[in-house]
Amino acid sequence: YTYTNGLVNLEEGHISREIFVNEAIYQQEQEQVFTRAWLFVGHESQIPQPGDYFNSCMGEESVILCRDRAGEIHVFLNSCRHRGMKVCRYDAGNTPVFTCPYHGWSFATDGKLVGVPFFKEAYHEQLDKSQWGLIEVAQLYNYKGMIWATWDPTAPPFPEYLGEFSLFLDLCIDAWDGREGCTKVLGGVQKWLIPCNWKFPAENFSGDSYHNISHRSVDMVGIGPGGTGRRDRRELNMSRRLHVSFPERGHQTGVYVLPKDELPPASYQESSIVAEYFRHCEAERHRRKKEWGRLIGSPGEIFPSTALLPRQPRSIAVWHPRGPHQTEVWRWYLVDQDAPQEVQDYLRAYYMRYSGPGGMTEQDDMENWNYAHAASRGTIARRYPYNYAQGLGYEVRDFSYQGLPIPGVVTDLTESKSSEDNLRNFYRRWAAFMDAKSWDELTTWRQGAQSDKGS
Ligand code: FES
Ligand code: FE
């Protein structure tokens, strides 16, 4: 297949349904995308002590995120070197070694093979243990507590992969008052299966600003912090609403920009402690981040499969592919490390009524992806492409709002209400990954031929 301007034709704004339902394309995607890209594995706060581990996955493969005895963080393939058994079968915990349940090889938390039953008798001491440790990712990066990894030694370092999108990732991972990092995972990780291709949720979180009708009933019920809508929108109503995308990197997000010199009105009214906390943080954030404190985060996606919800409910989602027709969603909920207990309890309740398989908003989306995917699988149905032409050609570069220059390619949604620019950006990058033979073809910014600012 040819992807760029073949199955993915963004000049016309058409994308073939094959990329969602075809088995061969799915296999190629595992090779071309999931073994090469940087993937989110977990958060440092999940493994605070030496010996702590969290069983995660990268694409289809099970991996162990753990902290060794010296305190160093690792990500290993969760597969024994002897016959492949999962060496770690618990979701999370603390252990001195991972002992394989099949024949009993054991591996230290730094990955070394340390125990082999009948090493003397059966192997005659001739097995070179140093060669048979757990397989470790090629690169790992701790970004303000978020652990990212890639299997590809030739991938650019994570900060370069992220580029100027760090500005938007920070809206999710920095404390509400603007201190760097200082976030922790609240409770456990929610995991559930949805019957659709992983790209359905990925494109939706990239910036499907068009699907408000899906959430109409939730808006009417009013589950937001102040009792209206999904989220309270008072500060959003006074802001400029934008889409921002980075064509060379495939990351994209929505964002709101407050007018110069205006603090947002408080949205949290339930208890004075909660309201006071957010009022205090809001003022601090503006003091610390100066003009960048005017940015209010909105859902976005780091290519390929990590979604961000920076504004409440503040969470990270990963879309794990489970065959072309199924996705396993994992969702981490974040809260400021030192937030008062009342704030944490309040957010826990809000996150639950909003997100996850039982959350009111998430259910609306899953219903659509489930039926859209199923209806696209038919022999006749898959002959007809989807339409991604909304707003094509209306993206602008070098956008600024009241003195604040916004990096990347921007669409001003205050005027146009909605655009599929961010979705096109996601698929542009996806097609590039599918076509590219090596990372050299994917690091176009190094060649200086184009830039995210465009020409
Ligand atoms: Fe692990 Fe045999 S599969 S010890
Ligand atoms: Fe939605």
UniProtKB/TrEMBL annotation:
Keywords: 2Fe-2S, Aromatic hydrocarbons catabolism, Dioxygenase, Iron, Iron-sulfur, Metal-binding, NAD, Oxidoreductase. Coiled coil: none annotated. InterPro entries: ARHD_Rieske_2Fe_2S (IPR015881), RHO_NdoB-like_C (IPR043266), Rieske_2Fe-2S (IPR017941), Rieske_2Fe-2S_sf (IPR036922), Ring_hydroxy_dOase_asu_C_dom (IPR015879), Rng_hydr_dOase-A (IPR001663). GO terms for molecular function: 2 iron, 2 sulfur cluster binding; dioxygenase activity; iron ion binding. It holds the Pfam family Ring_hydroxyl_A. Transmembrane segments: none annotated. Residues 38-117 form the Rieske domain. The keyword DNA damage does not apply. Belongs to the bacterial ring-hydroxylating dioxygenase alpha subunit family. This is Rieske domain-containing protein.
